[in-house]
Amino acid sequence: EEDSIVRKSAILVCRELRGSHTFDVIAGEIASVHQRFNIQAKVVSTTTDNARNFVKAFSVFSGDNDLLPIEPEEVSEPDDADPESDDDQNNDENDDVDIRDLHEGLLLLSDQVAEDVMLPKHRRCAAHTLNLVATTDLKKVPAWSHRKSFKNTLKKCTDLWRKQNMSSAISNKIKTELGSKLPYPSKVRWNSLYDSLKHMSNIFTGEDKEKVRKLHALMDNVTGLDPFTAQDIDIIVEYVTVMTPIAMALDILQSEEYAY
Q: Nearest CA to 181 among 215, 140, 222?
């Protein structure tokens, strides 16, 4: 709403997309929904995640040039160019080659599939982009001296979460000793890795040091895992500290009402 800046949402349709989710199929489905509700001229932009098929669908069918690669400027030949060069010798052979703009070529190809498809401007989901920064891009940080240590610590956490989820006896023991089960990451929930490690960090940094002793005793005696070392604890606490601003931003962006 314009006055309260509260976001409103509604579901128009929910369809099963069978077969390969190629860019042209996705574009056709989106366009068909617009046509069904006669909103082609009303939709000013569409927000999706960063999947390549979505990005390509809109770059081809929306005419949104911002999403297309920028073609390099033509470079003129220097005055003293060698007339006997291979490029000059092949010029005559290439006279009949029809060079087309990449976008134009994709449109011509796509016209064979869906002549009436025209999509609005594309927006990439900011929440999904931030989530990629905190997960996928994190693994690509150059010259990260603690990369191996972080992976080892995360593996130890993952092994503990897996033990809890695979055994009701271990799960109940953890709940009894620590007061609650350990939250664990899920690929379908953003911030889930952060939330899980934050719970671990709270155990290590909390005033109740007995919880740390109980956790390590559980790992050693019940799960058969090595307890967390001082380095493991430092890595978990530092990860939570660094990722807290991103996690908070994600929570705000994903808010149904007050995203703005």
A: 215
